[in-house]
Specification:
Shape: globular
CATH architecture of the largest domain: 3-Layer(aba) Sandwich
CATH class of the largest domain: Alpha Beta
Radius of gyration: 23 Å
Order of helices and strands: HHHHEHEHEEEEHEHEHEEHHHHEEHHEEH
Distance between the termini: 7 Å
Strand content: 5-15%
CATH topology of the largest domain: Aspartate Aminotransferase, domain 2
Number of strands: 14
Structural class: alpha/beta
Number of domains: 2
Length: 488
C-alpha cells in the first residue's frame, strides 16, 4: 500500500477504497466465525437510543406488574424523590422527563435563558460550554460565540439549518464555546472536520481559561455546562483521591464564583453509581435512562433543590396552586412528560442501582477483560498509543488511540463526528458489513458497552458474543490501517 505524507491524502485514499475495505471486512467476519444467525442481532453497545438493548427481566417484570395497577403518576415520582434523597442527601431532588435531550432543553430554558414575560425587550444571556465531544447536545442551545464557531454544527444530522440542530437554539441565548488547555482540535476524517482530542487536558490550566472567559462575559453569564463522563478520552482522566474528575470540580468552582449553575450532560451515565454531583459540585445532572441504566425510554434530571424547584415547576411536578409539595399537572414543558411505563422502568432501574449496583458493574469488569485480551492481539505496529479504560459511569470500556498520532507520524485513522452523520465513518459502517451493530467510534475514541445481544436476560455478559464483536473491531482497524498506508 502507498505511504502518505499528509493526512488528507490518507483519508482521500480511504474514501476511494471503501468498497475494498468492506469486502475484506465481510471476509474477516467469516474467518472470525461470527455465526450467521447472530449477524445483525448483536453489537458493540446497547447504549444508543437508535438501537437500544433489550430490557432486563427485572425491568420487564416491574413494568408488567405496575401496568395492571391503578396508580397516580405522582406516586412514582415521589418514590424517585425518596431514592435520590437517600443517596445524595435531602438537598437534592429529581424530575423525570421523556428523554435526556428533553431534560437538557427544559433545564437550559429554565436556568439559562432570559425571561419571556414582562415589559420591554428581552436581554441576551450566555452560557459557557466546554469544547468537547458531543458538543451539539450540551452546546447546541444557543448561538455560538466567538463567531469562528458559527458553522460548527452545520452538517450534523439529516437536516441542516432551522429544522436541524440549529433549530434547538433558545430565545436570546448564546453559547460561549471554551477550548480546553492541553486539548488538540486537529482536523481529521473523510468528512474532514476538527475533532476534540482530549487525553492531555490540563484541568488547572483549563480553569484559568474558564475564569478569564467568565470575567469577560460576566454581565451576561448565566451558566456552565459540560459532559459528565470520567474517562481520559473525554478529557476527564485527571482525578482526585476519591476518583472524581478534577476538571468537573474546577468548572463547578468557577460557576459558583459567578453565582451561576453548572449543568452536566451525563446522557451515557448512571445515577447513584456514576458521576456524583455531591463530589464534583454540579448543580444539575441529566441522564438518558434508556442508555447505560437499561430502562425504557426516559430521561432524568437530578440536582440541588434550589435549581430543581423551577425545573419541577416547568414540568408541572412541583405542587398544586393551593399547596402541597408535589403534583403531576400541566405546565410549560408538558410536552416532555414521560409516560407510566417509562416512569415504572426508570424507578425499577434506580432501585437496582441503589441496592444491587453489581448487576451493572460486573458486566463492565467482564467486558474490560475481553477488550484488553483482544486488543493485545492487534498488530504490534498499532499498539503504541492505545489507552484502554473502564467506566462504571457509562457501563463501558473506552479504547482511545489519540496517542498513535504522536511524533508527527500518521496513526490509526480518526473519523470525525461529521463522518458518522455522513455515513463515512469506516469504523462504524465497516462493522455493519461484518454483521456487528457499531458503537460510538469517532474522535479517536471508541466506547464499547454490554447489552446489545451480548448479555443474558439478567444483564450479565455472554462472553463468547462479546468476544466476537471485539475481535471484529480489532480486525476492521487492522484492515483500515492497511489501506491507510500504516500497515504493510
Amino acid at each position: 500500500m502507498a505511504k502518505f505524507k499528509f493526512k488528507y491524502q490518507m483519508y482521500k485514499h480511504l474514501q476511494a477504497n471503501i468498497p475494498n475495505i468492506y469486502a475484506e471486512a465481510k471476509k474477516a467476519a467469516e474467518e472470525i466465525g461470527i455465526p450467521a444467525e447472530l449477524k445483525g442481532k448483536f453489537g458493540l453497545t446497547g447504549a444508543i437510543s437508535g438501537c437500544p438493548a433489550p430490557l432486563r427481566d427485572d425491568i420487564l417484570h416491574a413494568g408488567e406488574v405496575e401496568a395492571k395497577k391503578v396508580v397516580p403518576l405522582a406516586t412514582y415520582v415521589e418514590e424517585m424523590r425518596g431514592l435520590v434523597k437517600e443517596v445524595y442527601g435531602d438537598d437534592y431532588d429529581v424530575a423525570p422527563v421523556n428523554t435526556c435531550e428533553a431534560g437538557l432543553w427544559v433545564t437550559f430554558d429554565t436556568l439559562f435563558t432570559p425571561p419571556a414575560m414582562g415589559r420591554g425587550d428581552n436581554y441576551r444571556a450566555r452560557y459557557i460550554a466546554l469544547y468537547e465531544k458531543h458538543l451539539h447536545h450540551q452546546g447546541g442551545y444557543g448561538r455560538p460565540f466567538p463567531p469562528r464557531y458559527k458553522d460548527i454544527f452545520a452538517d450534523r444530522g439529516s437536516t441542516a439549518g432551522e429544522l436541524g440542530f440549529y433549530g434547538k437554539r433558545q430565545n436570546n441565548l448564546d453559547t460561549i464555546i471554551a477550548p480546553l488547555a492541553g486539548a488538540k482540535y486537529d482536523v481529521h476524517g473523510i468528512k474532514y472536520h476538527p475533532v476534540p482530542l482530549l487525553t492531555e487536558v490540563d484541568p488547572v490550566a483549563s480553569k484559568a481559561k474558564l475564569e478569564e472567559l467568565a470575567e469577560r462575559h460576566a454581565t451576561m453569564l448565566t451558566g456552565f455546562t459540560s459532559l459528565g463522563y470520567e474517562t481520559p478520552g473525554y478529557g476527564y482522566g485527571v482525578k482526585d483521591e476519591n476518583g472524581t474528575p478534577v476538571l468537573q470540580k474546577m468548572v463547578a468552582e468557577v460557576a459558583h464564583k459567578y453565582n451561576v449553575p453548572y449543568v452536566i450532560d451525563n446522557a451515557w451515565g448512571l445515577p447513584f453509581v456514576g458521576t456524583n454531583p455531591v463530589k464534583n459540585g454540579a448543580d444539575v445532572i441529566i441522564y438518558s435512562m434508556d442508555k447505560a441504566t437499561g430502562s425504557p425510554l426516559c430521561g432524568l434530571i437530578i440536582g440541588k433543590e434550589e435549581f430543581m424547584v423551577p425545573i419541577r415547576r416547568a414540568m408541572g411536578m412541583h405542587g398544586d396552586r393551593y399547596g402541597t409539595t408535589a403534583s403531576y399537572g400541566k405546565a410549560a414543558y408538558v410536552t416532555n412528560d414521560p409516560g407510566k411505563e417509562a416512569l415504572v422502568g426508570a424507578l425499577a432501574a434506580l432501585r437496582v442501582l441503589k441496592d444491587k449496583p453489581e448487576v451493572l458493574t460486573k458486566p463492565v469488569d467482564d467486558l474490560y477483560k475481553v477488550v484488553v485480551e483482544e486488543f493485545a492481539q492487534i498488530d504490534p505496529q498499532l499498539k503504541e498509543g492505545i489507552i484502554i479504560s473502564k467506566s462504571y459511569n457509562s457501563t463501558a470500556v473506552e479504547v482511545n488511540y489519540e496517542g498513535t498520532w504522536k511524533n508527527e507520524r500518521l496513526g490509526i485513522p480518526i473519523f470525525s463526528i461529521e463522518d458518522m452523520y455522513a455515513g463515512s465513518n469506516i469504523f462504524q459502517t465497516g462493522m455493519a458489513q461484518m454483521g456487528v451493530i457499531p458503537t460510538i467510534a469517532y474522535d479517536a475514541n471508541i466506547y464499547i458497552s454490554p447489552g446489545l445481544g451480548t448479555c443474558d436476560d439478567n444483564g450479565q455478559l455472554i462472553e463468547e458474543r462479546a468476544r466476537y464483536a471485539v475481535k471484529a473491531l480489532v480486525k476492521l482497524i487492522e484492515i483500515t490501517c492497511k489501506y491507510a498506508g500504516i500497515l504493510e
